[in-house]
Amino acid sequence: MEAFDPIRRLVAEALGTALLVATVVGSGIMADRLTGDDAVALLGNTIPTGAVLVVLITVLGPVSGAHFNPAVTIAFALRRSIARGMAAAYAIAQIAGALAGTAAAHLMFDLPVLQIAQTVRTGPAQWWSEIVATFGLVGVILGGLRFNAAAIPTLVGLYITAAYWFTASTSFANPAVAIGRAFTDTFSGIRPVDLPGFAVAEVAGAILAVGVFGWLLHPSHKPLRRALAEAAGPAQGT
Amino acid sequence: MEAFDPIRRLVAEALGTALLVATVVGSGIMADRLTGDDAVALLGNTIPTGAVLVVLITVLGPVSGAHFNPAVTIAFALRRSIARGMAAAYAIAQIAGALAGTAAAHLMFDLPVLQIAQTVRTGPAQWWSEIVATFGLVGVILGGLRFNAAAIPTLVGLYITAAYWFTASTSFANPAVAIGRAFTDTFSGIRPVDLPGFAVAEVAGAILAVGVFGWLLHPSHKPLRRALAEAAGPAQGT
Amino acid sequence: MEAFDPIRRLVAEALGTALLVATVVGSGIMADRLTGDDAVALLGNTIPTGAVLVVLITVLGPVSGAHFNPAVTIAFALRRSIARGMAAAYAIAQIAGALAGTAAAHLMFDLPVLQIAQTVRTGPAQWWSEIVATFGLVGVILGGLRFNAAAIPTLVGLYITAAYWFTASTSFANPAVAIGRAFTDTFSGIRPVDLPGFAVAEVAGAILAVGVFGWLLHPSHKPLRRALAEAAGPAQGT
Amino acid sequence: MEAFDPIRRLVAEALGTALLVATVVGSGIMADRLTGDDAVALLGNTIPTGAVLVVLITVLGPVSGAHFNPAVTIAFALRRSIARGMAAAYAIAQIAGALAGTAAAHLMFDLPVLQIAQTVRTGPAQWWSEIVATFGLVGVILGGLRFNAAAIPTLVGLYITAAYWFTASTSFANPAVAIGRAFTDTFSGIRPVDLPGFAVAEVAGAILAVGVFGWLLHPSHKPLRRALAEAAGPAQGT
């Protein structure tokens, strides 16, 4: 696979995150307008999000890696798969894309472009949900890279489909998407003041996954104690 | 892959578009009859449409390319992948197939064969939805062709599954299907007078995608300015 | 692929059809018990049926071809892919399996094992639905065989997922399954007196598909007239 | 594929079972909170479970085989694919993971960590459902191993998606998951007193599948009588 230049990689990250957020926010608005049953609305939010992830990761993955997510970029930086400066540029592109995606969705549904979310999403249960959700997401990506890279788009799409339902937070698992969702006062919104808790939990889940899966997925004859020590300090051990 | 003759290619385009439109219109009628919850009805319209697209593109793709969509045919004509005369014939076959598909669905549901839709679908938000929807559709096809052609049927099916929900227009993204849907006064209809707005938006989205993805998916060392200029005039640059 | 002996092939046809019918009938009972919304019930009937078809065709296809359907067996007999005597034995095994599947579902849901359906399914719109449904099913199988045999399980599962919704009859498309469904007075039942109309329509759709797709999928330089004549008499032409 | 050491294999079984049970229990709680329609709730429980199975088996399968299920481990022990001592250790890891998964879900949804289920699930219809469900599950795994090992994650995910609906018990098909579900008094719970009936039925279904599919999937020229005798005593015959 030929390498893509930085401009194209950053445009791919921004464009992919924009389409992802437009899907999350737009399908949330659509679902909320059409039904009074919240589980039906969540299905109408989940199925499009899972589907579009498969598509975006397949199409843009060869260009930029298709992170669309600062927590994923941090995981790859910990593993030294991306340089620090580029990782920072990725995060900026992702956040810019997320904001554009929210605006694009609002324009499609004839809503004010600029909004501030009022949906409360805070507390230990929500943060624990985000830790679990992002731990699983990064674990799935690392496992896919290890055993079946061609399946990663499908794995991520299916994982998020599940995580929307098995976490109390509907699994944001993505600080850039969370920022995009802070600027929509619709079904999928999150109050700006609740963003830091989510972001910290998501990054913690990503780091935990780098440690646990870094150890689990690489067979060796090291004694367990040393293996566990390395799991606690993954950036050195992998 | 051996080449198929023009007659078979045009029959494949007509037959595929007919089955696609029969699915869109038929599942809309079925869903609308069975439920009073509009989101459930849209799920009952979305899932069959996404599923049948995977099937039709897999089975008929090797015969005709499985465009089933004049906006897609225009995108390929811009890229010089199909001759102008054949592209025009494709569009005619697609429209004829769409009309036949609507009629076939009406016969299955014991409804008058000839109907005129009365559902209003107009205004900037709808047009912007169609631009986004078709931009994404053509981008997905170009990205699939570039990186994973075998995945295109699945990518298109999943993309449309998502786009039904993230656009306010439920993502027609297809002028031939829109014409077919103008002749059914059921769940999926569109007033004939609203067709031109949709068709212009869809073709605009397709052209935009040819430009943006033509630039994005092909790495090079060209300076950005020249690359962007080429993106604005894609038929020459790709 | 090694050949399987006739006993194993017939057991595979019976077992596969039994599990297919148990899924159709069982999920219909489950869905009907849990909701008053008929579209939700149909989703709860559709998704399991599509899913189990992918599974059964993948696992039993290498043993028997995984027809599970006399209309499909007739199509293969027309194409001389299966001997007449074996085709008849297949049909008997499929019908026996279908009856066992209905009984198994009744036992799972604590219902009387023997029942006679009272659901009326008759008239030209229903028959036309079954013609279209089976035409599409056989076309999908022939197209899959022609271009992507490994995808056939997925194609059939997705096609039936769509056809449940785009036909007014919910796409039986299978005389053996129809017979099994005549012996359950639940969501998915069909009056025994309505069976002949369905069976005739299904076989007609299958024969039509052998003709049309036999012509469409095989490129040649024959003049159109001769090609169309062969399409009308497909058993000789393919 | 390199071999993984016992510690990693057991951690993979525990972690995978924990994420599976967290999905089953968590999505059940989410669905139950959001809707009053039990079929919609079951869809919200089914889709995430099927999706997460595909993901977990893909990512952890190369480490441990991704049984996540003592009935599956027993089937492999009968076929001498896993040593007895390791099989016992697998079962313990699976049960420990299941209990952790239930606890993790309760923490995510801000519920008491320790609960005892009160949902009655007993009687011949339920046990017969579990026999059928586990027979099918093990049959699918054996068929996948025989003909298309790469498809096993998808096959298991789709099979369980179907089995949630075609069995009256919603297809536990897994004694470890059942134990985990005995400790949640939510949508997916099962009274502890009902566990033995489920476990016996599940193991019986698994043994039956080893016999039937052991015979069916391996072509030979043995006379039927001997083949059937071997099917009744599969551990010797395969």
From TrEMBL, chains A, B, C, D:
Q: Which GO terms describe its cellular component?
A: membrane
Which keywords does this chain's UniProt record carry? Membrane, Transmembrane, Transmembrane helix, Transport
Task: Report TM segments.
Answer: 12-31, 51-76, 88-107, 127-145, 157-177, 197-217
InterPro entries recorded for this chain?
Aquaporin-like, Aquaporin_transptr, MIP, MIP_CS
Where does this protein reside within or beyond the cell?
Answer: Membrane
Q: Report which superkingdom the organism of origin falls in.
A: Bacteria
A GO molecular function annotation here is: channel activity
Q: Would the keyword Amino-acid biosynthesis be found if you checked this record's keyword annotation? A: no
UniProt membrane topology term: Multi-pass membrane protein
Pfam families found in the cross-reference section: MIP
Look up the coiled coil feature and give its residue ranges: none
In which broad location class does this protein mainly occur, judging by the first location in its UniProt entry? membrane
Q: Which PANTHER family match?
A: AQUAPORIN NIP1-1-RELATED (PTHR45724:SF13), AQUAPORIN NIP2-1 (PTHR45724)
Similarity remark: Belongs to the MIP/aquaporin (TC 1.A.8) family.
* Name used for this protein in its record: Aquaporin family protein
Please name the source species. Propylenella binzhouense
